[in-house]
Design goal:
Layout (H helix, E strand, L loop, with lengths): L2 H21 L1 H4 L2 E6 L2 E2 L4 E4 L2 E5 L11 E6 L5 E6 L10 E5 L4 E3 L6 E10 L4 E11 L6 E6 L5 E9 L11 E5 L8 E3 L7 E3 L2 E5 L5 E8 L8 E3 L4 E6 L2
Parallel strand pairs: 4-6
Antiparallel strand pairs: 1-5, 2-3, 3-4, 5-6, 7-19, 8-18, 9-17, 10-15, 10-16, 10-18, 10-19, 11-14, 11-17, 12-13, 12-16
Amino acid sequence: MSGSSAQEVAAAIRRRTVQAGAADPKVRGADWQTAVVTAVNGDGTVNVGVIVARRLDSYPAPAVGDQIFLTNSGAGNWVAVGRTASANVGIGGWLFARKPSDTSRASNTTPTDDPHLAVTVAPNAVYTVECFIAYIAASTGDIRIGFTAPSGSVGAYASRGPDLSATAGSTTSQLRIQSLLDFTTTIPLGGQSGTFSSAHPIGTVVTGGTGGTVAVRWCQNGSDATASTIYAHSWMKLQRMA
C-alpha cells in the first residue's frame, strides 16, 4: 500500500470513529438536544428515531411531530423533558386578552370583532374559553355577543347574563343559552338602561387545519341610537387542552 493510500485509510477510520462516538452517549457523555417525536408509546415513553426517551410530568399529552427537549445521562438513558416553545402556546398554556379601553356601538346590528378581545390560536388544537364582559346597554338596543374562530373550527358555548326583559335595577333571572357545535352563533342579552351588566360566556373551541383568530364579536341586538358599550377591563382567556 502506498503512503498516500495508507493516509487516506487512516483518515477515513478517524472520521468513522468520530461519527460513532458522537452518536453514542457512552462515548460522548451526558448532553441535551432538540428533536422531533416520531412515535408515542403507551408506557410513558416517546420515540425520536431510534431513541426511546422517558417522558417527565412536564410533558403531558405527547403527539407525533412535537419538537421536544431531550437530555441523556452518560449511561445512555434518555429523558423527554417537554415541548420547545413555539409561536403558539403548548398544551396547558394560556392565552389572554383584556380591554384597555371602552368600545361603543350605536345603530349597529351586525356582529363584528371586538378590537381588543382577540387571541391567535394554533391549528388542530382544543381550547377552553372563558370571558368576563362588562357592558352597558339600553333596553331597546340590548347587546348580542358571540365568537369568531378560524375556518373549520367547531365548538360549543353557553353565556350567562341578563334576560332581554331586564330593566334598570331589575332582578330578572339570568339567561343561559348553549349553541351546540356552533361556536360562532351569537346570543342576545339584555340591557338595563343605564345599569351596569355583565355576560359570562364559557365553552370549547376545536380548531381545524387552519389556525387564526378567536375573538369576541358583538353588536346591538336591536338598532338603537343609544350606544351599547363594552367596558375596559373586560377579558377573554383560553387554555389549550390538546
